[in-house]
Amino acid sequence: MGSIMPGVANWELIGAKKRASLIAAIPPEWMIPADILPPPSQDDVTTFPSDSGWFTPSELAITNSTAGDLVAKLASGTLTSVAVTRAFCKRAAAAHQLTNCLSEIFFDQALETAAKLDAHLARTGKPLGPLHGLPVSLKDNFNLVGLDSTVGFTSHVGHPATEDATLAELLRDKCGAVFYVKTSVPTAMMIAETVNNVLGRTVNPRNRKLTSGGSSGGEAALILFGGSVLGVGTDIGGSLRIPAACTGIFTLRPSFGRFPTGRCRSGLPGQEAVHSVNGPLARTLDDIELYSRAVIDTQPWESDPKCLPIPWRPATAERLKIGVIWNDGMAIPTPPVTRALKETLAKLRAAGHEVIDWPVGEEHKLGERLLSRMFLADGGRAIRNELEKTGEPWRPEMLFYAGAQDMGCYNMWKLHLERTEFQKRYLDRWRESGIDVILCPTTPFSTVEHGRFRHVGYTGVFNVLDYSCISFPSGVSVDKDVDISLLDDDGKVARQDSGYVPLSETCAAIHAEYKPDVVHGMPVSLQLVAGRLQEEDVIAMCKTVLKALE
């Protein structure tokens, strides 16, 4: 890394060099001209591609398309992979300059891959696979030979991967995908916002004062901006669903064993009390299904010993019995989320679906505590070891890891027993109720200002249960005139007409920090939860819900 500048810590120098190398990887012709560069004061940059005049009509048509439309045109030869890849590279370059969403940029390598795929189609007349020639973005932790997977640690900068992630191999070699960027994550991928000491903070393209969530927040920001049509993230406590909700896009959190997880970098390597899974993010549900079927059709159980030999099982869903969670016993949702639940349920009832309340009592509190204990079981040692290598400080969002105590092997075994008993009780209750799916918030809010994300209980409990989940945009957006705070003008006590009583200190803080005027216009997402290993079913049920919302 060279000599250290006076007064600059080693970790700071490493981060500065990494950030500079990313900008240097963008071709000069794809640096946004100064005269059209949105000023820092401009919050919403999602309209930049269409309004700036910097993108050609062809580039806009390509990058505004769905993955389904693109793969059809790529397979027929109507579009070349080089043209599609070049368009997404340019738009991804703009996305990074405006939102700081990328962790690795390798456009030249992507264009070489695209040219080879075009040559294959010309030679054989057949596409390589179901995603032939389609650019696909990957979260930072997916190893690609020759590229860093820092997962937000300065200690991993300059130590490129020597083997590809199993999923990456399958997407490239059997599906025909083209990789061109990797996307930023928070430190150790264990913060619900995307910020780290290597690359800094990723912001939300729809309002740069707000978070794009975490830990797959780089992916979500890139996709919302249009710099990717299909991306892959991971989820251990909500890391797919939270960013999808913060940006108003779709994602699928699969159960462990459906998609391959081998040879990826982890922020908590070896922690398997609750499994990290990976899944797609996209702007449409059809693209989520396209990806999911493509990956499972590669028979990933032949490549990853932890994948289950379950082929794709087409599913349909008609009349549903839906259990609704109004709050999880820990945090009452902010007004726009409650309104989205009410409006969605009214439309579902009108469409003939049965809706029952799904009260959680102390159940979800227990699940959230189980998750927290699993994350902290090593006393923060895995994270501390990486930070100490370069003298990198603990981020303020992670101080609870710094103060954790190693629970020891015996207590970890006992924790596993508690987890299994929790899973059994929930399964029994589900079967006895006869519900098909749970509808609940993804987060207690639409999104929040930077540094103010609180509470992963609505997502994390379902990681402990290992249930199949989808976060989807409800069609509701925050309206500052309708979704007024439950607190008085000082934000200190509940309005007399609200009936609000905080469920916890976290709940009180969420509502004290809720500012309708700040999040005005932001989309509100909800979550559908099916049983374990029911990916096809939860996609089908989400289609049914979306039909009712039309």
From TrEMBL:
Coiled coil: none annotated. The active site is at residues 139, 215, 239. Keywords: Hydrolase. Substrate binds at residues 189, 215, 236-239. Transmembrane segments: none annotated. InterPro entries: Amidase_dom, AS_sf. SUPFAM superfamilies: Amidase signature (AS) enzymes. GO terms for molecular function: hydrolase activity. Residues 84-538 form the Amidase domain. Pfam families: Amidase. Belongs to the amidase family. This is Amidase.
